[in-house]
Amino acid sequence: GLTMDENGSLYVTDVGKDEVRRYRRGESQGTVVAGGNESGNRLDQLSYPRYVFVDRDHSVYISDGNNHRVMKWMEGAKQGIVVAAGQAEGNGLTQLSSPRGVVVDQLGTVYVTDEWNNRIIRWPKGATHGSVIVGGNGSGGQSNQLNGPFGKPLLVMDNFVFKLNKTTNTKKYYRSENPQCTMTLHTDINDVLIGTKGDHSHPPEPE
Q: pLDDT tens, 101-141?
C-alpha cells in the first residue's frame, strides 16, 4: 500500500521488510517511519503491513495484517500504539481478521476493512472495541453483506463510507449511521464509470 501527505512525501508499506518508509521529494533511499525490526508482534514491530494512512500530524496508521491490528506511529516514534484490535485474530468487536484498507477522520476515528470478517468496522479514538458499520453478516451479495472487502476502498466523506467488493468490481455508498446501500456504481476494470443504480438523492461526490 502507499499514500501521500500534503507535502508530497510518499509512504510505502514493504511486506518483505515489515516496515513503512517515507520518501520525501527527491529522496531515493527513504526513511523508516514504522517497523523495520523484523517480523513480530511487539510494539516496535509489524508483520505483513498492508495499507497505510497518514494524518495531518504526519502520524502513520498501518493495517498490520498478520497481527490482525491497526497501529499508529507518531512522527519520529521508535514504536507504535495499537489503535484497533490487537486481541488475536477473530470476529469479536475487539478483534480483526486480515485488516486491509484503513483511513482516519479528523476526530481520530479509525475505519478499517476487515477482509475475512466481511465487514467495515469503526473504532473511535481511545475505544477498547469497535462497531460494525457495514457488513458482518457473512460473505455475500445482499445489501447487508460484503464479499472480501480489501484494498484502499475506504474513504470517509461526511457520513458516507465507500467500499469495493473484491470479487464483483462494484462500488457502493453507505450511510455510516444507517448502513444500507444508497447508491451503487458499476465500473469496468479501469475504474471507469459505466452505470449507476439506486437512490441518487444524497450521494457524496466521488473523487
A: 888 888 898 988 899 998 889 899 999 999 998 888 998 87
Quickly count: other Cβ atoms within 10 Å of residue 148's Cβ.
17
The three cell numbers of residue 9 are 512525501
Q: Which residues contact residue 126 at a Cβ distance below 8 angstroms, ignoring those fewer than 6 apart? A: 108
Round to whole Å and give the CA distance between 2 and 12.
Answer: 4
Tell me the C-alpha distance between 127 and 63, whole Å: 17
CB neighbours of 104 closer than 8 A, spacing ≥ 6?
53, 55, 61, 110, 111
Q: What is the pTM of this model?
A: 0.79
Listed by start position, the domains of the chain span 2-154
CATH architecture of 2-154: 6 Propeller (2.120)
